[in-house]
């Protein structure tokens, strides 16, 4: 028991923070956003060179052996640096391929991913944005050698530059819930696959994918056919906790900017940070973001230890979704006027952290999981 | 206690609604979207003039000032329907300064400005805030130096909303450097086209526009001063306080929620999201709180109609309303989830992406025209008589 | 439109407040509570003499013609004065008898009530504390001349001293919801009717009633047999809004005590009320209680006008339940140490307002009504 | 980061659990109820001594002071299980003063007090707060005047919890009237039986007891002073700060919630109330927030174990925890509804009426041992480096 970072973790954090402070400048962030570019190729290559895209993946593929918690801390720094690269969708899909794919599949995909030559995406959510597997309706008709996907996926991150997209689909038409689910890796240029771009408040772009009888070789099924419900849940949960880490990192940066501002900015003849009302807002902000951090770290640690973490992940997400934006909102209020102006940098963090709080499950949805996990959902009466 | 509208009120409400139905066209809405941040288009100008002709601007003022002595309730109804119909004319802003002109202006100023304000021909942008001081208005640094029959103005204003389309700036500048900070301030009514004035846009997160306004040796005649020299703080404070009442502001606070309610009732996705007891509980909670925003406004209005100067009630509106708005955007974001992040330009985005725009712009109400902190100070000190502290 | 009190209303308020400040002293309140007396007979008689027990009831019975809003304002003052008398249950039942009973019934009961000679009670809630009529399970078997009640009622106010109790029961065994409901006036000394006392945090006592085949003459049915669902709802709603008025009155008093305390009490060399943190707490307190007041007044006005007020009543109750106790809790925090001490008077208001916030429907239950009223409950899909 | 307990920790937890199962009898619980506010009964005294014999009191202290050099994590586990088993022995309070005695005490004081504290034979009541100043401790007025080899003490303390059963008072008194208020204060270790001390009960809303303690010409030898004269403020502050960490306090914050959770899972009424999605959402939200209370405690503990003096983290615990407790009582009250108001003495009252008792006593945590306002000041100033204000 020692909830603080150990030496390795601190080193990783410090190095990542220093790198991103330099390489993920607000100028770069603004440029990528203004050009609707979605990501910066140069930064992507540098990140690949640092081995970040192989973090927790096997050395045999060029990866860096590390516990999952290291990946989480890295994402915390990527969030703090609001780095404009599709590392979240790529790693989410790569981890799922590593965990569930065959050796051939892994060899074919992961080395290229780790080198920075292949970008991945994952497609989970459908109309309504529900997070439960019961919301998966995309049909996958299984043939002799191929599987044919039809339906829609929503809110797909990083699709534009992705080479392949890992799609969660229902391969047994009569199944429900977690039954009959498969993971299928689809080339993004497959025939019948089209996309509609969904611009977001984060300044990034998600996609709506339309699958019109997209035929994929059976070799592209990742994990066991029809039996990938559990794998899909793991993929979703890993995506969620890495999303929390990013929110936490961005929120820390934004509140630190606010504390600095409160020390410098004067009103009524003194720094605004000397007013008790402002001080108490700042005390709340750090308390909320610290709380979000601790919950996220506990979940990361459980994953690193190979322990079940469904409860901890949903606890973290439910809390982060509400408290991180609230902390940033207080930061805006303390900044006042300039917080709403695009030219001022604070908003770069605010819009992203806020958008992240709206993805991969609302607080209400995650608290529903928490309620189930803590055993307060009564058995349905007959 | 009377929480109802009488028949005359209801008739008037219908008249406004009919007018808006007849005059707010598809083309008008397209122009508003098209012209965002670029000033006023011709249809917008025409609509303002039409409203002015109807006598609805400043309708509760005395007849001698071009008003109609109308009941303030009717003015409230007018403003409410205007905002509810999403007509983006901040009529309240046009006329916020009028009471000060009536009270402190010269005969000439009154004759020139009041009828034109009423007709919608003159519109003011508020030149109060400066980069160095937001909430602390009295710390302003823009200077007006006497030079013969003129004043020469140098300095900078910021967050000057509407300057891109206003005819005048209602400017606070320092006319005496040596007196305590509240006492050396005067107000000037400055035509925006005066040489030396530069308006630079500041774009906001929601895609809207506010401005920085620079004054470089701007020369204006002494007759442009409103009221007495160095009394500007007191004239201005009054306008600001009156500006805090009214439906315009209240409706801004609850409009996001009303749109959410409409969405929840009528849109298939909204109905789908309402098939969740917890989401309904949260919407119902927001509904309760929105009623408080409405009732606080009606309370202030009732007091003003009785001739009472509300000691703290207007500040209560200005705490409750903005914080309700902020809270409602956050709550709704956790009901809409990923749909709440979709910006305009996507067919999937509910209400053309109105939700994320509301989300990122809600903050403005918590500091614009006085922060919620300053408002709470006022409630505690002026309303409850709590003492000012020494540390 | 004028949301402030008019002259008549202000006069009523001022007179009631002055009377109760004198007659409902904290000494009396403490004495009644300490003795488990439930109420003070002397104060009851004085209140009757003032005509309060006849407020809104017909002059023919000794009542005072007045709009319902006057009754609400009176209850606001009764709450402010935390008057130890069973006026809430008595008036709730009396109003229901007036609205639904026959002329004979009204003549037999109301004059005695108005004179202060008869105390009434009402029994609505059953196990679980639900507020919907569907929760009414108490069975009432209808015979030729009598009706026989069996079952339990919970949280019955003022039963100890009541002469009669108006019981909501299900007289048609196969009915559900608002169907098959009757109102039956039961003598509290009826054979088969027993009670278990439920001491509460307010220092008053509610009762659990056990009906073991209690036989009541059919003449004691108030309103139409089997058709009293709507009448029961009206009774419940009137009870709720008068409860809100009491919470509002008590809360105003408690926060005023706090503001006074904050002006006098010194710490760190100045009145604690001069600290910005305390000032902002006080600003919140008055905002919340004012909000509760305005919502309550709007509902009272609607009732006075004879307009439907289901929505407004539940809005007020949902808000009062949460914001009044929160305001009082902030008041406790500002008082600190002494707030928890029985000897200090603040707690007399705190415990009562808090207990009232737990009666006649939780915020969740009332928001469910609001959700229905504002049209966001989807039709059940087939 | 390591959020786990190792095997030794888990074994120790089991040892404590087994001990409590074996030693916390029905009779013990009956005695506790019976003796509430009357001091300690024989079974309670015996249990404390037994715990003392086990070496669990002050177990993390150095061996030279009677401790066992045990891991602070084990001490946390011990405290957690003690409170979780609802053993109402505030062991934390007994030993809160020990670090100060170790640091500042004379050899004689250390030899006398430390072993007896460890064995549970000496217990302190905290004589800090006075009627004139709650949070502002340094404003205290109780005086200790030198008289030969003695001090003579006059004054009054209030909210002196546990004075009815403590062996000593850990007393702060003013020994110099003329220095600035923090500098003229000394600490005395005063046997409660000393003539001139009167303990008067103050009954609390939850039926518990705290006390006023009056000092009338109480004569104590100079050797009863802890540390140097006039240095008491600094000695005392240290103890107070350390006293803020630890499981005892954390568990107090979350215990109402844990009981609610138990009730929701296992009681038929609780299960019935959980058949409501909104209620479940609220319980799940409280669960999330309770984890933050737990993790904040573990964070402070981790820092202290590493030899770091937490700049603000202990204050964060002391803001989050109490406000969580208060919030949880309010949320639960709107789930239990009328059941939440039922006081002990009714069979219908869940958990013997524990819910309303928690409800009315939750406030104490928000001002006891430093108000949440003072804690927020500390977070902002010491933690974030925000400046002290001038108005």
Question: Your description of this structure?
Answer:
The complex is a heterotetramer, with two copies of chain A (382 residues) and two copies of chain B (391 residues). Among the domains of chain A are: 108 residues, Butyryl-CoA Dehydrogenase, subunit A, domain 2; 144 residues, Up-down Bundle (Butyryl-CoA Dehydrogenase, subunit A, domain 3), CATH 1.20.140. Chain A contains eleven helices and ten strands. The longest helix of chain A is centred in the middle third of the chain and has 36 residues. Chain A is an alpha+beta fold. In chain A, the strands form three sheets. Chain A has a four-stranded mixed β-sheet, with helices on one face. A four-stranded antiparallel β-sheet of chain A has the order 2-3-7-6, with no helix packed on it. Chain B is of the alpha+beta class. Chain B has three domains: 83 residues, Orthogonal Bundle (Butyryl-Coa Dehydrogenase, subunit A, domain 1), CATH 1.10.540; 107 residues, Butyryl-CoA Dehydrogenase, subunit A, domain 2; 140 residues, Butyryl-CoA Dehydrogenase, subunit A, domain 3, CATH 1.20.140. Helices cover 48% and strands 14% of the residues of chain B. Chain B contains 14 helices and eight strands. A four-stranded mixed β-sheet of chain B has the order 1-4-5-8. A four-stranded antiparallel β-sheet of chain B has the order 2-3-7-6, with no helix packed on it. In chain B, a hairpin with a 2-residue loop joins β2 and β3. In chain B, α4 packs across α9 and α12 crosses α13. The longest helix of chain B is centred in the C-terminal third of the chain and has 29 residues. The mean pLDDT of chain B is 89. Chains A and D meet through α7, β10, α8, α9 and α11 of A and α9, α11, α12 and α14 of D.
């Amino acid at each position: 028991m020692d909830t603080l970072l150990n030496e390795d973790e601190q080193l990783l954090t410090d190095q990542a923070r220093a790198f991103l402070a330099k390489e993920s400048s607000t100028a770069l962030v603004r440029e990528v956003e203004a050009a609707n570019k979605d990501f910066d190729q140069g930064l992507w290559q540098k990140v690949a060179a640092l081995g970040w895209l192989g973090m927790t993946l096997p050395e045999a593929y060029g990866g860096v052996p590390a516990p999952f918690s290291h990946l989480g801390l890295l994402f915390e720094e990527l969030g703090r640096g609001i780095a404009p690269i599709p590392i979240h969708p790529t790693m989410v899909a790569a981890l799922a391929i590593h965990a569930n794919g065959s050796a051939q599949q892994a060899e074919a995909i992961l080395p290229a991913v780790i080198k920075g030559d292949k970008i991945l995406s994952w497609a989970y959510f459908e109309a309504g944005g529900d997070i439960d597997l019961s919301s998966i309706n995309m049909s996958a008709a299984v043939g002799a050698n191929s599987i044919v996907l039809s339906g829609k996926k929503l809110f797909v991150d990083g699709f534009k530059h992705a080479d392949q997209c890992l799609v969660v689909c229902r391969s047994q038409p009569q199944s429900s819930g977690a039954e009959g689910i498969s993971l299928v890796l689809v080339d993004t240029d497959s025939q019948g696959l089209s996309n509609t771009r969904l611009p977001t408040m984060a300044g990034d772009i998600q996609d709506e994918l339309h699958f019109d009888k997209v035929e994929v070789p059976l070799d592209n099924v990742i994990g066991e056919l029809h039996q990938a419900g559990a794998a899909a849940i793991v993929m979703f949960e890993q995506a969620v906790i890495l999303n929390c880490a990013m929110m936490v990192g961005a929120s820390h940066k934004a509140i630190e900017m606010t504390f600095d501002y409160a020390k410098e900015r004067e009103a009524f003849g003194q720094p605004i940070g000397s007013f008790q009302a402002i001080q108490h807002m700042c005390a709340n902000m750090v308390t909320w973001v610290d709380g979000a951090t601790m919950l996220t770290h506990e979940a990361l640690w459980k994953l690193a230890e190979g322990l079940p973490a469904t409860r901890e992940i949903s606890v973290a997400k439910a809390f982060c979704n509400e408290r991180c934006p609230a902390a940033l909102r207080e930061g805006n209020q303390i900044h006042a006027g300039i917080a709403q102006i695009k030219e001022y940098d604070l908003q770069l963090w605010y819009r992203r952290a806020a958008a992240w709080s709206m993805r991969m499950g609302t607080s209400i949805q995650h608290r529903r999981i928490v309620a189930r996990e803590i055993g307060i959902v009564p058995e349905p009466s007959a | 206690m009377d929480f109802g509208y009488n028949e005359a009120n209801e008739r008037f409400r219908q008249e406004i609604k009919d007018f808006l139905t007849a005059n707010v066209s598809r083309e008008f809405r397209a122009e508003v979207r098209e012209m965002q941040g670029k000033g006023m288009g011709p249809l917008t100008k025409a609509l303002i003039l039409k409203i002015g002709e109807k006598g609805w601007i400043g309708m509760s003022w005395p007849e001698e000032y071009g008003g109609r002595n109308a009941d303030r309730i009717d003015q409230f109804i007018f403003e409410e329907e205007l905002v509810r119909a999403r007509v983006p004319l901040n009529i309240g802003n046009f006329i916020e300064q009028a009471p000060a002109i009536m009270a402190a202006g010269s005969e000439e100023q009154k004759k020139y400005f009041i009828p034109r304000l009423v007709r919608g021909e003159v519109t003011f942008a508020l030149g109060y805030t400066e980069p160095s001081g937001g909430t602390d208005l009295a710390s302003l640094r823009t200077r007006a130096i006497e030079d013969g029959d003129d004043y020469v103005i140098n300095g900078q204003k910021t967050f000057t909303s509407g300057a891109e389309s206003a005819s005048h700036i209602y400017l606070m500048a320092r006319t005496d450097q040596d007196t305590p900070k509240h006492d050396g301030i005067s107000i000037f009514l400055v035509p925006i086209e005066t040489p030396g004035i530069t308006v630079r846009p500041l774009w906001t997160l929601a895609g809207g526009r506010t401005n920085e306004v620079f004054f470089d040796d701007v020369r204006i005649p002494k007759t442009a001063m409103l009221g007495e020299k160095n009394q500007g703080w007191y004239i201005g404070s009054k306008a600001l306080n009156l500006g805090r009442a009214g439906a315009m502001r209240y409706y801004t606070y609850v409009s996001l929620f009303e749109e959410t309610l409409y969405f929840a009732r009528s849109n298939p996705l909204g109905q789908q999201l309402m098939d969740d007891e917890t989401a309904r509980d949260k919407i119902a909670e927001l509904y309760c709180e929105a009623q408080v925003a409405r009732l606080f406004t009606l309370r202030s209005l009732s007091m003003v109609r009785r001739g009472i100067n509300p000691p703290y009630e207007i500040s209560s509106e200005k705490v409750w309303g903005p914080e309700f708005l902020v809270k409602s955007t956050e709550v709704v974001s956790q009901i809409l989830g990923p749909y709440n992040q979709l910006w305009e330009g996507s067919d999937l985005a509910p209400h053309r992406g109105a939700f994320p725009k509301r989300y990122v712009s809600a903050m403005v109400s918590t500091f614009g025209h006085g922060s919620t902190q300053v408002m709470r100070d006022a409630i505690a000190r002026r309303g409850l008589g709590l003492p000012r502290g020494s540390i």
